Automatic annotation (TrEMBL):
Residues 32-357 form the UDP-N-acetylglucosamine 2-epimerase domain. This is UDP-N-acetylglucosamine 2-epimerase (Non-hydrolysing). Belongs to the UDP-N-acetylglucosamine 2-epimerase family. The keyword Isomerase applies. Keywords: Isomerase.
Length: 376
């Protein structure tokens, strides 16, 4: 390895920023030279800039501005842009996060250029190849050199796919690190006042293609959410993907439904912290509600995060079952998580990842952290 090696983080979409912040901070504390490449997959200020500010992320060294498009067009633009920028910067390691198209493109580009890679949030599986994210996860894990898992079952899936145990490390969940770091700033009161909603409310987020891309699916979903809004006011910070389709299906601001722009990280989690109920199809929100002990109903047939059901407050529901499930969750009051919090969700995943990366840069492969003990 050369003197003063360089680590590049490839980030593109909202959840990437949340997962990367603790890793970037911890590598900084170890004095590792690093930079962020922003692909520009998400580009609205409320989908990108606000996260850099809220999470204290440094300015990217490059923004590729790839923007939106079909999977092929977006991935093609990502491949071309990333190849150029990786060749220009000559990193010793590229770190990718989660399961978005920017993640997939970065791992492909680096594999072809012979640049080593690390994948943060490796081994999650929904076993649903109809989800674009599942395709991205499988390809990313097949090509990564270092794989950082957030939950134990991921290690078994990776082993089953032939990934050597020497590459995998169970490190905990960096998205939960970000939540821990933000916790003192999470206050529902000012957000509730600004939105003009009562103190008892639900929050809903919807953006999965299977839920919002067709008028039929959107209508079924919106009808179910509107029924919930007859029980409790619902705030919906709308992801740009579903904005038009959900509005056409009847999700409009007024009465007991507050439809608002996407919220910044601190505002959103403040709202979630004070919510009586969360309804979502987001991956990250399933984890954050588990950590905060807020009841979560996930509008999906499956989840790549089953630990939020076995050790958390999450339940999968269909649109048809949502109103009754919401009624029960609201009647039961504060959620009792199903078990202890997932192992190593202790706010220290970033430092664990940074320790493994720093050792790897020096030529050491630390013993797989899967042997790490639950903190006292
Ligand atoms: C992407 C990820 C998804 C992740 C989500 C997080 C893929 C395949 N999907 O989905 O896994 O859960 O991010 O939020 O990578 N748009 C804007 N402004 C923006 C960004 C997007 O208006 O700043 C609109 C555009 O119309 C765009 C659509 O949202 O076509 C979808 O954006 P895209 O990045 O392709 O996928 P997401 O649905 O955001
Ligand atoms: N989030 C946010 N504002 C919002 C909605 C979500 O800050 O209006 C945060 C949320 O707390 C989590 C991340 O965005 O940290 C999850 O992103 P998203 O749901 O878009 O993606 P997924 O996790 O489904 O990939």
């Amino acid at each position: 390895m050369r003197e003063n090696p360089l680590v590049l983080h490839v980030l593109g979409a909202r959840p990437n920023f949340v997962k990367a912040a603790p890793v970037v901070r911890a590598l900084g504390e170890l004095g590792v030279r690093q930079g962020i490449i922003h692909t520009g997959q998400h580009y609205d200020a409320l989908m990108s800039d606000v996260f850099f500010a809220d999470l204290g992320l440094p300015e990217p060294v490059a923004n590729l501005g790839v923007g939106s498009g079909s999977h092929a067009k977006q991935t093609a633009a990502l491949l071309v842009g990333l190849e150029e920028v990786v060749q220009e910067h000559e990193p010793d390691l590229v770190v990718v996060y989660g399961d978005v198209n920017s993640t997939l493109a970065a791992i492909l580009v680096c594999a072809k250029l012979g640049v080593p890679t690390a994948h943060v949030e490796a081994g999650l599986r929904s076993f649903d190849r109809g989800m674009p994210e599942e395709v991205n996860r499988v390809v990313t894990d097949a090509l990564a050199d270092l794989l950082f898992a957030t939950s134990p079952e991921a290690l078994a899936y990776l082993a089953g796919e032939g990934v050597p145990a020497s590459k995998t490390h169970l490190v905990g969940n960096p998205m939960i690190d970000s939540l821990y770091a933000a916790l003192p700033a999470l206050d529902p009161a000012p957000v509730v006042a600004r939105l003009g909603i009562p103190d008892r409310y639900a929050v809903a987020t919807l953006h999965r293609p299977a839920n919002v891309d067709t008028p039929e699916a959107a209508k079924e979903l919106v009808d179910a959410v509107l029924e919930v809004s007859r029980q409790v006011p619902v705030v919906v910070p709308v992801h740009p993907r579903g904005k038009a389709r959900l509005a056409e299906a009847g999700l409009v601001d007024g009465g007991t439904v507050r439809v608002v722009d996407p919220l910044g990280y601190v505002d959103f989690l403040s709202l979630v912290r004070g919510a009586a109920l969360v309804v979502t199809d987001s991956g990250g929100v399933q984890e954050e509600t588990t950590m905060l002990g807020v009841p979560c109903l996930t509008l999906r047939p499956n989840t790549e995060r089953p630990i939020t059901i076995t050790h958390g407050t999450n339940r999968l529901v269909t649109p048809a079952l949502l109103p009754a499930a919401a009624e029960k969750a609201l009647a039961d009051g504060a959620a009792t998580p199903a078990g202890e919090l997932p192992v190593l969700w202790d706010g220290k995943a970033g430092p664990r990842i940074a320790t493994v990366i720093a050792a790897w840069l020096k030529g050491d492969n630390l013993a797989p952290a899967s042997q790490a003990k639950r903190p006292e």
